[in-house]
Amino acid sequence: MIKEVDINLLTDYRQYGVMPGAKDFNKQGVEKLVYQWGGELKGHFYDYLFFGQFPSLVNESDAEARKKYLIEAVYKKTLEYDIPKIFSVEKIEELKFLFQILVSEIGSLLEIENMASEAGLNRETVTKYLRYFENSLLIHFVYNFSKSFRKSKRLLRKIYLESVNFYAAFRDLENLAIDSPAIGFLVENYFFNILQQSYQYIAFYRVRKEEFDFIVTKDLMDRKSNQYFEIKHTNNIRESDISFIKKEARKAGDAYVIISKDTLEFSEKRNIFPVWIIKGQ
Question: Is 202 helix (H, G, I), strand (E, B) or coil?
């Protein structure tokens, strides 16, 4: 949600913003977004990333008031009242603490044992609480890619938040640099949320120690329908860092997409887009 925006910027964004997987975007329009509106678009994007997904916060400029609202919305309503009431949870403080841990684990492989140790809970309780969070639409699990949907459920998992704004409820953002790794994970989570609007099957792809962020498809049995995405919230994108996604896309005979901080690049084999020109449905 964007506030106090130049109507011409908004018109151009609606017309030229790029949807994930789009094949027929307007290159000149995309360049206009990046080179004419880039500075303003970035400002709106990062504000949205931290606080802008809740309509009640759009016109609130005070950071502490914003954080208080998020804490009230997540802690007081969902974690302290809704989930304990619906699922008969008794260890409410442990439930809340576990969620704080999850907020710091965006895009990381799920390690139940480590999480249980940190939260002071046993494995069974952590597994149960994670299911409560998922059923309450606070988190989403993303699994390692497999052509068998049933098999994928037994593979490695990552966690993404329903709203990246949850991060702002528990962290001090004033001294957080835009280039910090934490922002990169938030951008990754944001892009996942955008993918959810268009694709039912979203996975990451990991083979031994090689990995890229997202593979999406509308048909698991048709390899040619796979689309490949890597998030690199940096302007220093090294070819060695994207060799795995490049290799897998080449096998399928398809292009791949890199989501960057500011870099824009078009080519036959890949496109690189700044995250702040990506739009959902």
Answer: strand
